């Protein structure tokens, strides 16, 4: 094996590729409901399907159906947070640049309707962010735009780093509540 090749992971023997679709069908609606805690319903199915594609590529790593199930729920939650975080970043960057959503032009959309839906989502997030208390808006700006670490933000606010993570989670929950997705 050359240095560029990664070692093959040993098959755990727990799950075969033919078992994944059946297990996925059984948990699909629960996964979509989990995603709906973070995102608008129209994005939930996409996130769940992307997570399933990742699972198919990693089928040999799952020791059991329960392992696969736990992994799917964790990955769906993480992907939803990534999508929401990306949209919050888009809104904050747009506001810092004068208000237009220049980032929309970087995305490819199959049709103008999907572009309009995406822009409407960003406008809704913008409205939710504007309704947050000043401290929450400042915290999000430092984390998403300035790319500060939790420790740096903690120093700025006179807090512990773990408290910054709590405040960040609470700010995201407020946004989800204002968007009506929690």
Could you explain the architecture of this structure?
The structure is a single chain. With 182 residues, the protein is mostly helical. 69% of the residues lie in helices and 0% in strands. It contains seven helices and no strands. The chain has helices spanning 19-36, 41-57, 65-96, 112-130, 134-145, 150-157, 161-179. Helix 1 runs antiparallel to helix 2 (41-57), helix 3 packs across helix 4 (112-130) and helix 4 packs across helix 7. The chain is globular. The relative contact order is 0.10. The model is unreliable at 1-12 (pLDDT under 50).
- Order of helical and strand elements: HHHHHHH
Q: Count the strands?
A: 0
Distance between the termini: 49 Å
- The amount of beta strand, in percent, is under 5%
Radius of gyration: 19 Å
Taking pLDDT < 50 over at least 5 consecutive residues as the criterion, the unreliable ranges are 1-12
Mean residue pLDDT: 82
* Helical content band: 55-70%
The major sheet is characterized as:
none
How many separate helices? 7
Tell me, what's the shape?
globular
Q: Could you state the oligomeric state of the chains shown? A: single chain
Structural class: mainly alpha
Key attributes of the depicted protein:
mainly alpha; disordered N terminus; 182 residues
